[in-house]
Amino acid sequence: xxxxxxxxxxxxxxxxxxxxxxxxxxxxxxxxxxxxxxxxxxxxxxxxxxxxxxxxxxxxxxxxxxxxxxxxxxxxxxxxxxxxxxxxxxxxxxxxxxxxxxxxxxxx
Length: 108
Known about the structure:
62% of the residues lie in helices and 13% in strands. The chain is of the alpha+beta class. It has a domain at 66-108.
């Protein structure tokens, strides 16, 4: 069945006749049926996702902010310990990815 045949069949069907009494009672019937229908709010996924994303972003921000402070304090403790342990004849030392090393040491 193509569109033309469908449209011609739909046009050939008679519309049922309604009495004047039906049309007078129609608005009250609609209102009565609406009262019977319970409207339940849909559970929306987006607010939960927004809160979860905000919490994750906050935790990431906190970690990104506090991690450098932690490592700076850890390195400061290491440097202070090394400075306390350095002999008097050491003048310069260096720090690289492997730790602290003597750069120039005077021999006495």
